[in-house]
Design goal:
Elements: E1 4-9, H1 16-28, E2 36-41, H2 44-53, E3 59-63, H3 80-83, E4 89-92, H4 95-100, H5 105-117, E5 121-126, H6 130-134, H7 138-150, H8 155-160, E6 162-165, H9 181-199, H10 201-204, E7 208-212, H11 220-224, E8 231-234, H12 241-257
The protein binds phosphoenolpyruvate.
């Protein structure tokens, strides 16, 4: 059975003291849960201090980025080899990195491969932008992003991965339009179909697929209720511990509703 996950993407927010206060408060409101993994994706500078502070039975850590070479003369970069042992996951291919930092298919593929060889599970973000959606091009875009990113991986590696379907137009920083859960269902089904075509049905039923885009404590339940949706990637709403704790709470409750 796939374990559900809720990921907080803090983006470039919080410092050591605000992060520590936040996690202290979140910790008080969070219980250990067998079927839900809560992943915190803070800025790079916070990973080490938070790794010493968090209750690892309740929370896992994700890096928001990493460099694909393991070491060398790459001033300012931090490699997945350096993150090994510090984080369990890494967010790769986020639309902000594709758009603001020109990350292309090749770079994302190299990052996915580098994370994987360093035993870090990629949370691969894929999704179409507004004009691609209007042009009815969603499936092609998602298939291209997926196929190119997974290119170097084995079936076992793909089975362990997390894919976050994040339509760019639904992300709060890029418009934050609220999609209909039925639209998300179609793409989640298509992602599993693609994985199945490439790696077989067994792998497709193991890979976790998330939704991300303006999720909050009111909207989360509808997305979690979708067939084959294993959780959510949460940006803006994860910055407030009260709101994020409500999202986690809904994640606990979904099994009881089923
Ligand atoms: C994100 O950045 O991955 C995201 C989903 O952001 P938001 O929830 O703010 O739309």
């Amino acid at each position: 059975m796939r374990k559900r996950i809720i990921v907080a993407n803090w983006k470039m927010n919080m410092n050591i003291s605000t992060a520590s206060i936040y996690l202290n408060n979140l910790n008080k409101r969070t219980t250990i849960h067998r079927n839900l993994e809560v992943i915190i994706g803070p800025a790079l500078t916070l990973l080490y201090p938070l790794s010493l502070e968090i209750d690892h039975r309740k929370f896992s850590l994700a890096a928001q980025n990493g460099y694909f070479k393991d070491q060398g003369a790459f001033t300012g970069e931090v490699s997945f080899a350096m993150l090994k042992g510090l984080v369990k996951y890494a967010i790769i291919g986020h639309s902000e990195r594709r758009i603001y930092f020109n990350e292309d298919h090749q770079l994302i593929r190299d990052k996915v491969a580098a994370a994987t060889r360093n035993e870090i599970i990629p949370i691969l973000c894929i999704g179409e932008n507004k004009s691609e959606r209007v042009a009815n091009d969603t499936k092609r875009v998602v298939a291209d992003q997926l196929n190119s990113a997974l290119y170097n991986l084995t079936s076992d590696e793909v089975a362990k991965m997390v894919i976050a379907y994040e339509p760019v137009w639904a992300i709060s920083t890029f418009g934050g339009e609220i999609p209909k859960p039925s639209d998300i269902q179609k793409v989640i089904d298509y992602i599993r179909f693609q994985i199945s075509e490439l790696y077989g049905a067994k792998v497709a039923s193991s890979t976790r697929v998330l939704y991300g885009g303006s999720v909050n404590s009111d909207s989360i339940t509808a997305y979690l209720a979708l067939d084959g949706c294993d959780g959510a990637l949460v940006g803006g709403a994860s910055l407030n511990y009260l709101e994020f704790s409500k999202i986690i709470e809904k994640g606990y409750l979904i099994d009881k509703l089923a």
